[in-house]
Structures
1.
Amino acid sequence: MRRVLVPLLQLAVAVGAASFLLQWVLRLFGRRRTVFQVTYWRGVQLLLWPLASLCVALPLLRPLLVGPQQPWEWGLFGVLLAGLLGFALPSLLLHWQYYRRNRHTTLLFDPKQNILEVYEGAEPVPFQRPDIRRVEYGQCRARGVFWSNYEYLRLHLHDGRRVELTSLLTNLQPLAGFLRHTSLETRRRWFCWL
């Protein structure tokens, strides 16, 4: 089993490092993006530390398969597993919820051109900046946890509709700064559940 897991882990680290290097080079020499969608690489960026903590938990599964002999081994295994899942599980739940909300959403955002458009699938969500009654910006209160990068913007329109944009699309701070004159309410929470 070890002969299989070690090369797979090394391959995953090499592919991840190569992809981050490629993204850095593309950002350095490429054009600034104005169209944002949920992408695999944005998901990897947000889930890097939760998945790393789960990889740390993988060696703990071996004693479970062999079967701990003493009750203190069961207790130690349970405490370690609960700690690791406590770090990773909230991020995974937020990622799943945000992905369900924005998997078909496309955000067209260019502050220099004063453009903000949202599409659900191929259909545009019709609104203009004056149509926005208020903007709710959900941020994580604790900055040192794995799920602190999961944020959302909820645009409340005058006709009662709500447009929800999550951090799976892009970093939301520039968009919140763009919408700062439309009664922006920042809500700090421990867990930014929609």
2.
Amino acid sequence: MEINRAEPHWPQVAAEIRRRIEGGTYRPGERLPGTVALAAEFDVSQSTASRAVASLRTEGLVYVVSGRGYFVADA
């Protein structure tokens, strides 16, 4: 996915992760890549990747397990 640099980055990253969850790339109970890996993949800062994942947590699409990372929530 190519980031549109004229628009805020975190909603674009969140939308792509959401698309992957809805499309089955990331399955319920599966751990998401870490924010460092996501930042590298999308060529954004780690804080941008963290904000994107946090927004998905607010939506209930992912949950956090302390010390282990973010996981896809059951549908």
3.
Amino acid sequence: MGRYSLPAGAFLGNLNGGILDGTLASRVGPDGKLYVASELTNGILRYDARTGRYLDTFASGIGFSHPTGIAFAKGAVLVGNFEKSTVSKFDSKGRFLGPLVGSQEYALDGPDVGMVVGPDGVLYVPSFNNGAVLKFDPGSGRFLGYFLSPGGIAQPRTILFRKKLVWISSDSGNQVLRYKMNGSFVDTFIQPGSNGLKGASGMAFGGDGFLYVSSWHNNKVLRYKESDGSPAGALIETGLSGPTFLTVVR
């Protein structure tokens, strides 16, 4: 997993230490540490968010089934497991507290990297395989309905919230779509294939007026104007292998 500077895109090195295989979501936790999902070793590792130095393994083994997404809520760490379509709950010490969402409950099918707790305190879970986005209470796991019903979007991956809108990357759609908080469609913010986008997966606002999107089918990170979605070249064009998630560390 590589580290790059903004806005130049200079390579700063890889995460240093720990055994990662199949890295997916990476998020800075409430403790200031970088949590990284290692899908193929069934665990969550922690790193120094600024230096990339390995700190420890937060949790591994029990409670994992190809972890993809990470979210934080009310002193807990929530993990989306792609293989069995579950969401697991851990306490802040890494102890497994049990499933928050059971296997394929409410048609959850492939919880993906963009699982996140929104500004409304609701857990949003992208369901990659059937094109849905589900909502849950992050404390109890109570189902709160569909943000997007099955078939509503092609292969949803990352979910962002900004300017009272919800931004969702569509992998096979090669685009980024925007919605109101009630789930009603607003617009296609990044048009299919714009700027060479192929496999829209990770997204992050850089704080520099640009939205960055990982184009994992051609191993690039592309840049778009936050104001109107117009293409603004690439942040990274070489040296990547299947980039699926982006995290900006400030």
4.
Amino acid sequence: MPAELEQTLALLSSHRSVLGYMLLSRGQPVSIIRHSGVIFEGEQGRKYASMIGRIVESVQGGLEEDDVRFMRIRTKRHEIMISPDERYLLAVLHDPAT
């Protein structure tokens, strides 16, 4: 993994409001390359990965002329921030109340 990506992941993990992150491949099906946080382990992690992949594909499919650079989805308890790239999807789950 590139050093710049390693630094970014380390910085994200150190922030107190971050509950975890997932680095996903862009292929079909989306696969987990790396993750942190208990919330992204096992079956729950695979569900999040699949959901994030579907969200990104759906949004990008609806915007033919613009590339999506960043998405922010807020629920009652958490916020998911997604940064799609040509090769990867980076998703960060954080607690906005922290």
